[in-house]
Amino acid sequence: MKLFGIAGWSGMGKTTLLERLTPELTRRGLVVSLIKHSHKHIDVDRPGKDSHRLREAGCSEVLLLGHDRWALMHELRGAPEPSLDYLVSRLQACDLVLIEGFKHGDFPKLEVWRPALGKELLWPQWPGIAAIASDGPAPPRAPGEADLPAWLDLADTARIADFALAHARPA
Fold first, then answer.
1. CB 102 within 8 A of CB 36
2. pLDDT digit string (tens) for 48-78?
3. Of 168, 97, 94, 76, the residue nearest 131 (C-alpha)
4. How many CB atoms are closer than 10 A to CB 8?
5. For 97, what's the count of Cα atoms within 13 Å in the CB-facing half-sphere?
6. Longest CA–CA separation in the chain, Å
7. What confidence tens digit (pLDDT) does each residue in 111-127 have?
8. In terms of DSSP bridges, do strands 96-100 and 129-134 run parallel, antiparallel, or are they unpaired?
9. Whole-model pTM over 0.85
10. How far apart are CA 164 and CA 130, in angstroms?
11. By CB neighbour count within 10 A (0-12 exposed, 13-18 middle, 19+ buried), where does 131 fall?
């Protein structure tokens, strides 16, 4: 199992890239999983459903199994968020874990950057950014500034997949 991250400001197209990257990787015969960190309050369950009622009643974990999928929901109830290593250990065996978020994680990342949106690059402030995928040209560097990491065309999914596989870190 190897790890590779996708980073970027909200609205840059990370999910859109992941929607293209995942089938490219699975066409190559890989089993791909994803861990997404959100800074929002999330709930994959709905009020009124049995599983929601039982979580609200105090269950620390609820595993819901249906005909098409299963989901394990774990309530933090004020406890700190688990580490990325712990979350990775909860996944079934796979070839590659794509990670969105976990900016301080010790794994290589690809930054998605669209200059038209007017945001600064996350690189070099975020550790581990090994490449930038963009729909625009690389910004000019002033003398003495650090060289940019690899610059990839955001539309070139096959090249991004090649880069991710070449730079993914063992879990």
1. no
2. 888 888 888 888 888 888 999 998 989 999 9
3. 168
4. 25
5. 22
6. 62
7. 999 999 999 999 988 88
8. unpaired
9. yes
10. 9
11. buried
